[in-house]
Design goal:
single chain, alpha/beta, Collagenase (Catalytic Domain), four-stranded mixed β-sheet, 6 helices, 4 strands, globular
Length: 163
């Protein structure tokens, strides 16, 4: 899996970015995600994530992570149409991008302090949490929450990023 990283804050170390990529690749293998998938992470401050949260979720408050799952449009063809190989390859490229995450480093620090664990653990938690969202997991109902939260804890523990 390819992960594109952008740090709009100028405060996330190269080491932490590299560790996050390593964690997400581990998570991708853990859920058996095909290797050709791609995603993006942008580290932001509270004011920027508040703007994103307002625009995409209708909530005018800063949050810890916003996950934007990419949902490609379904293209159908008449059965008589034989798609050229070049077009097949081009369409497959669109299928590789799964989504993007925005993580507030200020919220991550605040939550790490509140929960009594490391900033690194919180940043890893937020990355895995968002990653699961862009792969179809959710926690809007109790049953789904139980599944998603158990899986994210299982991934973090197996990776060695414990509380």
């Amino acid at each position: 899996m390819y992960v594109e990283m952008t740090d709009n804050t100028g405060q996330v170390s190269q080491e932490m970015q590299a560790e996050t990529v390593k964690l997400l690749k581990f998570a991708a293998e853990f859920i058996h995600l095909p290797e050709h998938k791609e995603m993006a992470i942008t580290y932001v401050l509270n004011d920027e994530i508040q703007d994103i949260n307002r625009e995409y979720r209708g909530k005018d408050v800063p949050t810890d992570v916003v996950s934007l799952e990419y949902e490609p449009e379904t293209i159908t063809f008449d059965d008589a149409f034989e798609m050229p190989e070049a077009l097949q390859a081009e369409l497959a490229e669109f299928d590789s991008f799964i989504g993007e995450l925005y993580i507030s480093i200020e919220k991550a620090q605040e939550q790490a302090d509140n929960y009594g664990h490391s900033y690194e653990r919180e940043m890893g938690f937020l990355a895995v949490h968002g990653f699961l969202h862009i792969n179809g997991y959710d926690h809007m109902v109790a049953e789904d929450e139980k599944v998603m939260f158990a899986l994210q804890e299982e991934i973090l523990t197996a990776y060695g990023l414990t509380r």
